[in-house]
Amino acid sequence: MSDDGHEHNGHEHVPSRQRRRFPGISSRAYEHPADRSALVALRKLSGFDTVFKALSGLLPERSLRLLFLSDSVRVSDQQFAHLNDMLRDACYILDLEKVPPMYVHQDPQPNAMCIGLDEPIIVVTTGLVELLDEEEMRAVVGHEVGHALSGHAVYRTILLFLTTLAVRVAWIPLGNLAIMAIVTALREWFRKSELSADRAGLLVGQDLTASMRGLMKIAGGNHLHEMNVDAFLKQAEEYEAGGDLRDSVLKILNLLPRSHPFTTIRAAELKKWSETRDYQRIMDGHYPRRDEDKDASVSGSFRESAASYADNVKTSKDPLMKLVSDITGGAGSLGGRVRRGFDGFTSPAPGQDEPPTDDH
């Protein structure tokens, strides 16, 4: 299709407003460094390759497709036509040649996912469709197309399957532990992949305000008149910086069972990325191309990921991350910081004084 044309893969394409297109864009352009490194680490997890190969033949993907075909509404020119336009628009902008099938599933819980081993399927719930306006929904559709372009659907499908399997085999000694190790690793990767897909959604919608509104609605419902973007982002700062080491540990424990990062954190991460030179370069047409993927350096990806993690630790206001930064920086007051951080775990006995610290 030409830049001003109206046809893409045999479909009519009439975007509601002019948006930049990214011909041949590689998913490397928008992937969060932690997404790439977590996926590489996941593949290196002991036994993962064996499990992956075995599951690829066992997963009921055909059954899954038949289930959505029989019990959900497939998006098309005749059904949910406005979503169909958004889907084709998103695939056109990110230059995804084959438009994945998309289904609307009856569920009041706002949700969307991209699953499938051979070919990705996008599923959105009625709760999400009813909650978001057109521009907010466009960012979500772009988010899911980003998952498809990155190849995330395969691992998301395995995560869904293993989560269910772990419940079924919980009674088998050690069997559940092995599965849960892989589930935990998959969840850690998937949380990072959500940050990548949020960026893809912004590239498709090209409206940061709409992306912010959508995340706010997912967190607080359809009450935008009661919410404020700046106050919502302030929550992320307060969450990161608040409390002591006990709170840092609780944050980790709260996050472990989740497949998605916390909504305020997603909003803050997306806004921060939208203000970077990397984002501006993509919008100016300078980005990694898909035909260069085979020449991309794996070690370079690791270095970029390591640099990203190091920067996050260095700039984080979280007490645990500040402690890690002090350790790597060789701070002399480390002992005092550790004792102060965990002050509340063990209180002094009645009549006893507080223990002294090394900090002066």
Specify the oligomeric state. Answer: single chain
Which regions contain 5 or more consecutive residues with pLDDT less than 50? Answer: 1-15, 318-325, 330-352, 354-359
Strand adjacency order, main sheet: 3-4-6-5
Question: How many H/I helices?
Answer: 16
Radius of gyration: 23 Å
**What is the helix/strand order?**
EEHHHEHEEEHHHHHHHHHHHH
Helix fraction bin: 55-70%
Strand content: 5-15%
Can you tell me the overall shape?
globular
Q: Structural class, judged by helices and strands?
A: mainly alpha
Mean pLDDT: 74
For the secondary structure, the number of strands is: 6
Main sheet attributes: strand count, strand direction, barrel closure: 4 strands, mixed
In whole angstroms, how far apart are the ends?
A: 68 Å
Which tags fit this structure?
16 helices; 5% strand; two-stranded antiparallel ribbon; mainly alpha; 360 residues; 4-stranded mixed beta sheet; disordered N terminus
